[in-house]
Amino acid sequence: MGDALLVAAGLFAVVAGANDGSSVLSVGLRVPGVRPLLSLAVLLVALVVGPWLLFGTRVATTLAHRLVPFSGASADRVVLAATVSAMVVVFCLVRAGLPTSLTLALVGAITGVGLGAGLSVSGGELARILLLGLAAPIISGVLAFLLAPIALRAAGGPQPGRRLRRWHKAAFCLQCLAYSANGGQKMLAVFAVAAGAASSGLVRDPWWLAVLIAALFGLGVLIGIRNVSAKLGKEILAVHLRHAIVAETCSFAVVMGAGLAGVPLTMSQSVAGALVGAGAREARSRVRWSAVMRMAGAWGLTLPASIAAAALAGALTRAL
Q1: 216 within 8 A of 17, measured Cβ to Cβ
Q2: Could you read off the pLDDT tens digit of each residue along the chain, which spans 320 residues?
Q3: Which stretch of DSSP H or E encloses residue 240?
Q4: I need a surface site. Which of 33, 41, 206, 303 has the fewest CB within 10 A?
């Protein structure tokens, strides 16, 4: 079962690259002049140095221990059930035209498998995750609404200047670091249980594991590169450089804050909220509200679907 979980953890990292890569890279790649491979390299470096050297593994520890304490001989089976359930739910929703959050699916799957397998589920931890998850796009949207005029003035007209491009590079790097401190650690949580690096209530991140996760994540991004800029940076808003800067800055603030508090948060929610706020500040008609509602509907379906699927899987592992 340990080998099966390692394989599932590797596949999960590839799926995370294909799914989350669009959330992190999509906004910036809608801006002319941004080099995709360089942007990807920055993100992969952040995935390695973030948990390993800079921020610790608070979010991975929450997923591997605090939400549901995975321990004992059955830990591998239960985590395998949760990981597979999360991937199945995301795959089904994407096939239905409802791209969603893999982080949210994993939170739901961990909760569901804990309930189905008869494990202790921390209601307080779950409430904290859900409350911040609901608040994140709203907070990002408000921040973007306030920051958008500053970015517009800094643009100095329709053609962005050098200063704005430097601001964009800095904001993108900060966004990548925020992802490494938060949503990127869901891969570490699964791998840590599989590799025995999650003992004593704390997830460890040895250098070889950090590099392996980044490599698999990068493979996933390359596999899904055609869809990288198809959603957040196109459907919600016709993104210009000023919008990209606002979205990256606001999502960094919200996602990094949650990561340092050990609360898993999806980057796509914060980015989407920031794009809505930035667009609405200029004109409500700039925002494609039908796309916003479709995305919100996908998020609303993800949690109950992943809880239900994983609860069934957890009950099966308990019966076997």
Answers
A1: yes
A2: 568 999 999 999 999 998 888 778 877 666 666 678 888 999 999 999 999 999 999 999 999 999 998 876 678 899 999 999 999 999 999 888 787 899 999 999 999 999 999 999 999 999 999 999 999 999 999 999 999 888 777 766 555 567 778 888 889 999 999 999 999 999 999 998 887 766 666 788 889 999 999 999 999 988 876 665 555 556 788 888 888 889 999 999 999 999 999 999 989 899 999 999 999 998 888 899 998 998 899 999 999 999 999 999 999 988 87
A3: none
A4: 33
Q: How far apart are CA 291 and CA 62, in angstroms?
A: 32
Count of residues in the chain: 320
Q: Comparing C-alpha atoms, which of 104, 249, 225 is closest to residue 177?
A: 249
Q: Which two tokens stand for residue 58?
A: 């608070």
- The one-letter amino acid at 287: V
Cα 132 from Cα 138, distance rounded (Å): 10
Q: List the one residue out of 83, 112, 113, 302 whose CA is nearest residue 187.
A: 83
Task: State how far the alpha carbon of 195 is from the alpha carbons of 34, 68, 230, in Å.
Answer: 37, 18, 35
Tracing tokens 């995301």 back to the chain, one arrives at 90
